[in-house]
Amino acid sequence: MTAVAKVPATIVVCPHCGTKNRVPAAAPGAPRCGRCRKPLPWMIDTSDADFATVVDESTIPVLVDVWAPWCGPCRMVSPALEQLATELAGKLKLVKVNADEAPRVSHRFEVQAIPTLILMRRGRVIEKQVGAAPAHVLRSWLTQHLPADEAETAQAPDPSLGDRP
């Protein structure tokens, strides 16, 4: 049995109502605001030790960003990825992996340049992109490669929420 490091929960401020929510690194489904029940952006930093739990076991598609703190293009694309994770809240989980601290992840996906973006679903690679791109290009790439049910409803409001406060 391998040891799995425990990834702490993060605090996410709901973009709809401003409520602070504790969001776990791994859980079935997608996080929702405790107050307004709208989907929350799910953005997690992970490592070699937690990758399988955080990414491979995710029940929603995951966008893995393999980056490094010294990489200028990585720092430039990060705000665009966070914007997309917010727009696609409930449909996509953004997981950031520091290539310098997670060599097994880099080796698993044969990362040869950063940033490398890997779109995954149920532990399988859907598509890979190497290099930085502006938000509109990344949005198009994501919606083109997201499974149909996520891509079609990415911009539509969740009808199950109704008008609950």
Polypeptide structure, described:
Residues 1-5 and 152-165 have low confidence and may be disordered. Helix 2 (72-87) links the parallel strand 4 and strand 5. This protein starts with 9 loop residues before the first strand and ends in a 12-residue tail after the last helix. The chain has a 5-stranded mixed beta sheet with strand order 3-5-4-6-7. It has a two-stranded antiparallel sheet with strand order 1-2. By secondary structure, the chain is of the alpha/beta class. The protein is 27% helix and 23% strand.
What are the key terms here?
165 residues, alpha/beta, two-stranded antiparallel ribbon, 23% strand, globular, disordered N terminus
Structural class: alpha/beta
What Rg do the Cα atoms give?
15 Å
- Given as residue ranges, the uncertain stretches (5+ residues, pLDDT < 50) are 1-5, 152-165
Q: How many β-strand runs?
A: 7
What level of helicity do the residues show? 25-40%
In short:
With 165 residues, the protein is of the alpha/beta class. It has helices at residues 51-56, 72-87, 103-108, 135-145, 148-153; strands at 10-13, 20-23, 42-46, 62-67, 93-98, 116-121, 124-130. A hairpin with a 2-residue loop joins strand 6 (116-121) and strand 7.
Q: Which helices and strands, and how do they pair?
A:
Blueprint: E1 10-13, E2 20-23, E3 42-46, H1 51-56, E4 62-67, H2 72-87, E5 93-98, H3 103-108, E6 116-121, E7 124-130, H4 135-145, H5 148-153
